């Protein structure tokens, strides 16, 4: 089990690290906007605007306390749901807007740094590097493996029905809390 928690310790949980997972650093402008939304103290972004993420099945994760502190954000009406701990603004992870997406991209801020490599391996794919900040840009690699494992995870979770055991969605398929959607002005400010 990999233990995760928010900075203040109110939100805590565990991930079963067996099974399919991906380690990624994503440099896309949406992940950068979410990092900026949480602010510098949340320390989501690295020096080049990258967000380190571990993708796992939502069914592999459960909260041991503080689940009621979760807040959710969408950058637009069509975007992913970005979850964070309301108590201390620690980034938790990103999911698709419906439970069928099956995965959550857990953001490094809530993970146990000392155990990430032991639990999820040392291979890290670099994605969306063309929007990385500064130069030289990091070289993108690992996309094919990430996509293959991503589809395998989604397929096995769907066929087994395990995707319904998500702590982020009600049995009705709605998120456990209504995400706040940024206005286009708010998003513009975060992306400039
Ligand atoms: Zn907290
Ligand atoms: Zn991204």
Can you characterise this structure?
The chain is α+β, with helices and mostly antiparallel strands. The chain has one domain (2-181): Metal Binding Protein, Guanine Nucleotide Exchange Factor, Chain A. The protein is 21% helix and 27% strand. It contains four helices and eleven strands; from the N terminus they run E-E-E-H-E-E-E-E-E-E-H-E-H-E-H. It has helices at 29-38, 116-120, 143-160, 184-191, and strands at residues 2-5, 12-15, 22-26, 51-57, 61-65, 70-74, 81-85, 90-95, 103-107, 125-127, 180-181. It has an eight-stranded mixed sheet. A hairpin with a 6-residue loop joins strand 1 and strand 2 (12-15). The termini are far apart. The mean pLDDT is 96. Bound molecules: zinc ion (2 copies). One zinc ion binds at residues 26, 28, 30-31, 128. The site of one zinc ion (ZN) has 9 residues, from loops.
Question: Any idea of the CATH class?
Answer: Mainly Beta
Rg on CA atoms, Å: 16 Å
CATH topology: Metal Binding Protein, Guanine Nucleotide Exchange Factor, Chain A
Question: What is the chain-wise order of helices and strands?
Answer: EEEHEEEEEEHEHEH
Shape: globular
Can you tell me the CATH architecture? Beta Complex
Bound molecules: zinc ion
Share of helix, binned = 10-25%
Summing up helix and strand content along with how strands pair, one would put the structural category as: alpha+beta
How are the strands ordered across the major sheet? Answer: 10-3-4-9-8-7-6-11
| Poorly predicted parts | none
- Beta content comes to 25-35%
Total domains? 1
End-to-end C-alpha gap = 39 Å
- Structure annotation, total helices: 4
Number of strands: 11
């Amino acid at each position: 089990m990999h233990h995760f928690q928010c900075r203040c310790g109110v939100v805590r949980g565990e991930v079963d690290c067996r099974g399919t997972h991906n380690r990624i650093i994503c440099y896309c402008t949406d992940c950068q906007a979410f990092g900026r939304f949480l602010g510098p103290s949340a320390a989501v972004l690295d020096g080049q605007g990258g967000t380190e993420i571990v993708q796992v099945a939502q069914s592999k994760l459960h909260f041991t306390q503080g689940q009621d502190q979760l807040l959710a954000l969408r950058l637009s009406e069509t975007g992913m749901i970005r979850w964070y701990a309301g108590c201390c603004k620690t980034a938790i992870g990103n999911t698709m807007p419906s439970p069928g997406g099956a995965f959550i991209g857990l953001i490094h801020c809530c993970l146990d740094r000392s155990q990430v490599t032991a639990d999820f391996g040392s291979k890290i794919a670099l994605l969306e590097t063309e929007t990385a900040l500064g130069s030289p840009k990091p070289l993108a690699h690992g996309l094919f493996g990430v996509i293959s494992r991503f589809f395998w995870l989604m397929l096995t979770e769907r066929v087994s029905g395990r995707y319904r055991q998500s702590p982020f969605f009600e049995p009705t398929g709605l998120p456990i809390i209504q995400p706040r959607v940024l206005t286009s002005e708010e998003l513009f400010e975060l992306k400039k």
